[in-house]
Design brief:
A five-stranded antiparallel beta sheet has the order 7-3-10-9-8, with helices on both faces. The chain starts with a helix and ends with a helix. A hairpin with an 8-residue loop joins strand 1 (55-56) and strand 2. The protein folds into three domains: 4-78, Arc Repressor Mutant, subunit A (Orthogonal Bundle); 86-123 and 223-337, Beta-Lactamase (2-Layer Sandwich), CATH 3.30.450; 125-220, Enolase-like, domain 1. It is built from 14 helices and ten strands. The chain is α+β, with helices and mostly antiparallel strands.
Length: 338
């Protein structure tokens, strides 16, 4: 456990390093009137903090820099609560479809923070069917168009052995909309609704041919990730070497690992901060990630994340991520209620 003076010195080292990305010298700290300590006392306290693994020397004669453990102590114990909660972030989400809202959120977060922003969209199976349209493209070719409650549009082209009767197409559109609108794409009852025993053989056979366009939609869909700010992160923050840059880019391209990592935040009640080596993904072990989940009450649906240097402004980043998740949750509640 640190003394109050040691905590104050650690806090000042972290904040000074965040501002300058330069090692903080003991003489700079000794000149701070808030510490009320001479140079020898400051040097002693810095040495103690280094023994605790919270600070490090880049070079023998250089000042100190925070370690991953130092940042963790700062975030958990020293970060003023007001810094981590206050945010003037305003997302323009009104009257947008879900995919556009995800894109706006990602772009806004990256622009506001100059960090890499990642937003995972709600799984497709959580959406409901809003409208179904069957469009004849040619006498033997139909397109099934499905519009979901989140604004998503799915299209599937089906080819038949013989020309399809236009009356049968019109009937099927009315039947499917009456039976399925409002049902979840992942709902088991969706399959049952298509097996209506009152249908005539011709109608049942036609519905059977159309069914995969509806029943396989959620099964074949991939979770969507919205990413913005990779180039900005590369230009704003110096990476140690090209290998590190390549690892980050490969992580973004191979999204399975990234999605699995983000899902761990869905069950958390508050913002998660992973610093340096705390990240299981190798590409992130020299970076920090701040993540929060959003969704419906008792039903998490997606995550909001910012990735940047370990020396990021944690107060600002935590506040922005928390506010973005809050605003997305309100937006999603409105969408899913309509």
């Amino acid at each position: 456990m640190l003394t109050p003076r040691q905590e104050l010195i650690l806090q000042k080292v972290v904040l000074a390093y965040q501002a300058t990305i330069q090692p903080v010298a003991s003489r700079t700290l000794a000149a701070d009137s808030e510490l009320q300590a001479g140079s020898s006392t400051v040097r002693h306290e810095l040495a103690q903090l280094e023994e605790h693994g919270l600070l490090a020397h880049p070079h023998t004669s250089a000042g100190r820099v925070p370690t991953d453990s130092g940042y963790r102590y700062f975030v958990d114990r020293l970060l003023p609560a007001t810094q981590a909660t206050s945010s003037s972030l305003e997302l323009a989400l009104t009257r947008r479809e879900v995919d556009e809202a995800m894109r706006v959120t990602t772009e806004t977060l990256s622009q506001v923070t100059n960090l890499l922003a990642i937003v995972s969209a709600p799984p497709l199976e959580t959406a409901t069917i809003r409208h179904i349209e069957i469009l004849p493209l040619q006498p033997q070719i139909l397109m099934v168009v499905i519009i979901t409650s989140t604004g998503g549009v799915s299209k599937r082209v089906l080819t038949f052995e013989a020309p399809v009767d236009s009356g049968l197409v019109g009937w099927a559109s009315e039947f499917l909309n009456e039976a399925l609108v409002g049902m979840g794409l992942g709902a088991r009852m969706l399959h049952a609704k298509l097996l209506d025993p009152t249908l005539r053989p011709t109608e049942r056979g036609f519905v059977d041919r159309l069914a995969p366009a509806l029943t396989q939609l959620a099964e074949t869909a991939e979770d969507s990730l919205y990413v913005d700010g990779a180039a900005r992160l590369m230009s704003e923050h110096r990476f140690q070497d090209l290998t590190q840059i390549n690892e980050v880019m490969q992580m973004l391209e191979g999204r399975v690992t990234l999605l699995a990592m983000l899902r761990t935040a869905l069950d958390e009640r508050d913002v998660i901060v992973r610093i340096g080596a705390e990240n299981e993904t190798p590409a992130l072990r020299s970076l920090a990630m701040v993540t929060a989940g959003y969704g419906l009450p008792l039903r998490p649906l997606g995550t909001v994340s910012l990735i940047g240097p370990v020396a990021m402004d944690y107060g600002m980043t935590i506040g922005v991520v928390r506010e973005a998740a809050h605003q997305l949750s309100r937006f999603i509640e409105d969408v899913y209620d309509t």
